[in-house]
Amino acid sequence: MRIGLTSTVPVEIILAAGHQPVDLNNVFVSASSAARQVERAESAGYPRASCAWVKGIYSTILDEGIERVVVVVQGDCSQMQAMVETLNGAGVEFIPFSYPYDRGAERLQRELEALAAALGTDVEAATSIQMSLAPVREKVARLDELTWTRGTVSGWENHLYQVSCSDFWGDVGAFESALDQVLGRAAQKEPVAERARVGLVGVPPIYSDLYEFLDGLGMHVAFNEIQRQFTMTPSLGADLLTQYQRYTYPYDVFARLEDIQVQTLKRGLEGIIHYVQSFCYRQIHDHLLRNALHCPVLTLEGDRPGRLTGRDKLRLEAFCETLEARRSARVGDR
Ligand code: SF4
Fold it and tell me: How close is the Cα of 77 to the center of ligand 1, in Å?
């Protein structure tokens, strides 16, 4: 059975139960009808001033005929919880999952067990799946490493394969074969000449052409923060409970800030683009991020799915010029 996900949850449990995970975010944003999906939700009564991801997922559940959805009711956002309530009576079964704010081991373990019981499996079986997924996750970690060490994997490829670790396309074998091909191609390429390295932090962007546009400006996205968290590669080798305790996205912002600081230094990032979604509470974290970082930060706000606006492009061009000027000044100082 296809099990919809509104956010990254322990996919090992869904696979252990013999179901096919479907990340509704990825289905929505990659659909050619994504903009219409948002409008459809607004026609059904959703406010204009609400998150487009939530509206898109609402329509995607109905369009795809998804009958069971695991919804994160603590650690994602309250808009998603309200979305679930608007589908009351539509024949969709929702299975709640919570990431306790304090990362408490006992509470999180209970959540893992409850999710496993709801899907007809247990944590032991999920642990076996976790072990079988480890080689795939290691390959994704390799892909990420090639992105920033040699530049032979593009920022877009890095985004795509990392963001897809929430559900492995519902077919781990197909995902791994495609990943092998990208890694094979990357191994054949010469390291890419030095370009401005930037990090993209915050929720995955809703825009379809952001990576392409940055590439055209000569900016290489060498770090996709939240997408990397979705891969669980920062906790490779840990047990299932620890893996989901170390996952930074659903808890407080401070572990995220520390991760961004470490990766900014490690990857030699020259600037950070903080993507924020219109009407998302996570926008409030922007000033904490700016205070925590010692490099230029551009905050880019997106609303609807589709292409960058003219204003976004102008701001990205100006940001690129700033990074280039700092780079030239550094060369001049040597
Ligand atoms: S972008 Fe923000 S408001 Fe929208 S679904 Fe994600 S967490 Fe919720």
Answer: 6
CA of 279 to the centre of ligand 1 (A): 8
Whether 77 lines ligand 1, by a CB cut-off of 6 Å, is yes
Instruction: Establish if 55 belongs to a structural domain.
Output: yes
pTM of the predicted protein model: 0.96
Number of independent structural domains in the chain = 1
User: Could you tell me if 323 and 270 are in contact, meaning their C-beta atoms sit under 8 angstroms apart?
Assistant: yes
Q: What residue owns the CA closest to ligand 1's atom 4?
A: 51
d(CA 324, CA 327): 5
Residue keyed to tokens 């292409």: 307
Mean pLDDT estimate for the chain: 96
Expressed as residue numbers, the domain containing 42 is 2-124
Give dist(CA 322, CA 217) in Å, integer.
12
Q: What is the pLDDT of residues 128-178, one digit of tens each?
A: 999 999 999 999 999 999 999 999 999 999 999 999 999 999 999 999 999
Nearest 10 degrees: Cα torsion 81, 12, 231, 157 = -100
Mutation test of ligand 1: which of 8, 80, 226 has the most ligand atoms closer than 8 Å to its C-beta?
80
Q: Closest ligand 1 atom to the C-alpha of 52?
A: 4
Q: Whose CA is nearest to atom 3 of ligand 1?
A: 280
| Atom 2 (ligand 1) nearest CA | 280
Q: Please give the Cα distance from 23 to 6 (Å, whole number).
A: 6
Give the whole-angstrom CA distance, residue 286 versus residue 274.
8
In a domain, 97, yes or no: yes
- Cα separation, 60 vs 36, whole angstroms: 11
User: How many percent of the chain have pLDDT more than 70?
Assistant: 100
Cα–Cα distance measured from residue 251 to residue 98, given in angstroms and rounded to the nearest whole number: 10
- Asked whether residue 331 is domain-assigned, the answer is no
pLDDT at residue number 194: 74
Tell whether the model's pLDDT for residue 329 goes beyond 90: no
In degrees, to the nearest 5, what angle opens at C-alpha 80 toward C-alphas 47 and 108? 165
- CATH code, 68: 3.40.50.11890
11 belongs to a structural domain: yes
